[in-house]
TrEMBL record:
It comes from Bosea lathyri. Residues 1-26 are annotated as: Disordered. Residues 27-438 form the Ketosynthase family 3 (KS3) domain. Belongs to the thiolase-like superfamily. Beta-ketoacyl-ACP synthases family. This is 3-oxoacyl-[acyl-carrier-protein] synthase II. Pathway: Lipid metabolism; fatty acid biosynthesis. SUPFAM superfamilies: Thiolase-like (SSF53901). Residues 14-26 have a biased composition (Basic and acidic residues). PROSITE patterns: KS3_1, KS3_2.
Amino acid sequence: MSTKNQTSPNQTSPHRDAKPHRDAKGRPVVAVTGLGIVTSLGQGKEANWEALTAGRSGIHKIERFATEGLRTTIGGTVDFLFDGPFTAPQLSEKLATLAAEEAVGQSGLGQPGDFPGELFMAVPPVEMEWPQKQELAAAIDGDVDYDGLLRAAASQKFTAMHELFLFGAVADHIADAFGTKGSPISLSTACSSGATAIQMGVEAIRRGDTQAALCIGTDGSIHAEALIRFSLLSALSTQNDPPEGAAKPFSKNRDGFVMGEGAGALVLEDYDHALARGATILGIVAGCGERGDGFHRTRSSPDGKPAILAMRDALDDAGLKPDDVDYINAHGTSTPENDKMEAMSCAAVFGERMATLPISSNKSMLGHTLTAAGAVEAVISFMTIANGRIPPTINYTNPDPAIVLDVVPNTARDAKVRTVISNSFGFGGQNTSLVLTAEPARA
């Protein structure tokens, strides 16, 4: 896949005076002109695409910290960016920076440090981690109560620690580095966060608030405490050996997801703005659907209604029908309940086509990149469209007879893909679906 920048911010085009492009609902068409990605498979689109289509896993035994005594000792950690100790916000920022550099560079939009658009950024929930808690406790002589914390804060000895764990700090740093306009938006809607960031960028362009948006999902939050918390929810796979075989979406012997790290970045533009500067159009974000589900803090609604409505809303937003979809990039976490719910929901939307409509899960190779997943998988979906090749669902050797799907098992498949629906269903009831296309639908 070529990542060469073929654009110039000041380049004119014969399209400048053409009739404005509008979607089926009369709104500006939202184009994608830049893509960037970092995962446990490597840095950049080419490295990730080669590994994904080869069916290679980035999941491995965790070496970054001690895992003795933990039920889960594996993850899709990104270990090639730091040599020493670091926190989740620091790694999340580094991942976001690398993905954004690739996306903005490919788009050719603006100048370095002067991006002419807004920033919408999905970042993981942050809180003080164990080493910092221990440092703070030692500094206040073990008097770790509310009054002790207030005295520590008043001493102003911990300003750097405080700023490190501010929720909006990562987006602020990215905004400063790339020179985005307006106030950066930080958001967290659990596992749908990356898709929600894209949706917010789409909506801003459609409203005319901005002609461009930098949308990022990032997550570098694998640490011991996170593994323990997800284990207490019985959400993680405990099939630690071999690590690369643990994530097995839609298989009968699936037992939970594997945590992953990574970042995905997309440059979105008003289609006519992109044409006028001679940009290469990589695809279109044609539709977005989002539904809330208050059924349970972690479990999906058993009837799948919110997921069904999110997909239907996304298709309606795009002005398309279920028959127009060529491929589904599944949420596909490898948890028993989520995979069953997603299969049932897709069947409700696509009917009998689900027996033959390709649906595969990148998480079988990347692990679940949590906050970043929606953006990472959107980038992969656009690469699927560009290359005409569908990444597989690996580790599919024990099919679940209750889930009859074409999961593109184990081996990538060549196919003409023009329209993808990408699903992101999060803890806490956030369900987001994106419809991604090769070109604008005819109004």
